[in-house]
Amino acid sequence: MKKIEEYAKKEKEKKTEIVAKELGTTEIQTIKKAVEISRALTDVIERCKLYVRIAGKKYVTVEGWQTLGALLKCRAIIKRTTKLDNGWEAEAEIRNFAGELLGT
């Protein structure tokens, strides 16, 4: 039984190693890419004025979030809405265009 566990562990490590090399991505590269994408998306929101100011702060509008989602090849699926005294609350899932769940 121990040999099977050791073999499975080695195989798992091999797969992880192969994926990491295939991607050619380190954590620092991933962060740099995320910052680059973030800046580009912020530029779109600013240039297209897809935000509203509330109490001096900028908040992205629904249209802004839809635009960002389209640029990142994902979309929000509304699961629930609730009317509040001072507005609305919504719960959504984020899915890619293939329908795979990315987040809630």
Lateral arrangement of strands in the main beta sheet: 3-4-5
Percent of residues in beta strands: 25-35%
Shape: extended
**What is the CA–CA distance across the termini?**
40 Å
Oligomer: single chain
- What is the total domain count? 2
Radius of gyration: 21 Å
What is the number of E strands?
Answer: 5
Structural class based on helices, strands and sheet pairing: alpha+beta
Helix content: 40-55%
DSSP helical segment count: 3
N-to-C order of helices and strands: HHEEHEEE
Indicate the low-confidence ranges by residue numbers. Answer: 18-22
Estimate the mean pLDDT confidence: 83
Main sheet makeup: 3 strands, antiparallel
Quick overview:
By secondary structure, the protein is an alpha+beta fold.
What keywords describe this structure?
single chain; about 100 residues; alpha+beta; 2 domains; 3-stranded antiparallel beta sheet; 3 helices; 5 strands; extended
Molecular structure report:
The protein has 104 residues and is of the alpha+beta class. The protein has two domains: 1-61, no CATH class; 73-104, no CATH class. It has three helices and five strands. It has helices spanning 2-23, 27-47, 62-71; strands at 51-54, 57-60, 74-84, 87-96, 101-103. The strands form two sheets. Strands 3-4-5 form a three-stranded antiparallel β-sheet, with helices on one face. The chain is extended. The two termini are 40 Å apart. Residues 18-22 have low confidence and may be disordered.
